Amino acid sequence: MTQPPNNSDEWYKDGLSFECSLCGNCCTGAPGFVWFNEQEADEMATILNIDAPTFLEKYAHKKFGRWTLNEVKNEKRQYDCVFLIDLPGGQRGCKLYKSRPTQCRTWPFWPENLKSSRTWKNAAKTCPGMRRVDANFYPVEDIRIILNQNEF
Ligand code: SF4
Predict the structure, then answer these.
(1) Is there a domain that residue 116 lies in?
(2) Which InterPro entries match (predicted)?
(3) Domain that holds residue 96
(4) How far from 112 is each of 6, 75, 97, 120, CA to CA, in Å?
C-alpha cells in the first residue's frame, strides 16, 4: 500500500476540484487491478442478485493473494473493467456504481496521484473530471478522509 502524504507534504492544502465526466477512461486501458475486500464482494453480489461465491467465480480472480475484478479485452486491444457499461450519449459508467469498491470510489484522490501537483496533473491528462471548471470542490479535510479510506 502506498503511504498517504504527511500533512507537511499537502501541496493541495487549498483543496482540489473533481467531478466525474463519465468518460470511462479510468475503467479501461492497460491491464490493471481493481482490488476489493469481502464486504465489498458481498455488496457487489447483492446488486447483481447473486451470492458472493458465484460473484467471485464469474467476475473476479485472485492475484498476489487478493481478489481483483476481471477485465475484458475490447476492440481497441484495451482492457475494460468487467462492469464498464455504455451509457446514452456516448458516456460510459459502472454497472455497479452504487456498490463500487473503495478503490473506484476514492479515485482520483489516491496517494500516488496526490504525491505532488505534477502527479496530479499527470493523472488529469486522462481524467477530464479532474480538469472541469464546474467540478465539485474538495477541501483538504475531505481529501484526508478519502485518503484514509484507501486500503489498496
Ligand atoms: S477518467 Fe475521470 S472523468 Fe473519466 S470516468 Fe474516470 S473519473 Fe470519470
Answers:
(1) yes
(2) Puta_zinc/iron-chelating_dom
(3) 7-149
(4) 13, 29, 23, 8
**Per-residue pLDDT tens over the stretch 96-128:** 999 999 999 999 999 999 999 999 999 999 999
Ligand 1 centroid distance, CA of 96 (Å): 15
Atom of ligand 1 nearest to the CA of 130: 2
Query: How many structural domains compose the chain?
Result: 1
Residue 92 alpha carbon to ligand 1 centre in Å: 9
Gap from CA of 129 to ligand 1 centroid (Å): 6
3-state helix, strand, coil in the chain (%, to 5): 35, 20, 45
How confident is the model over 53-67, as pLDDT tens digits? 999 999 999 999 999
Residue 16 within a domain = yes
What is the position in ligand 1's atom list of the atom closest to the CA of 108? 7
1 falls within a domain: no
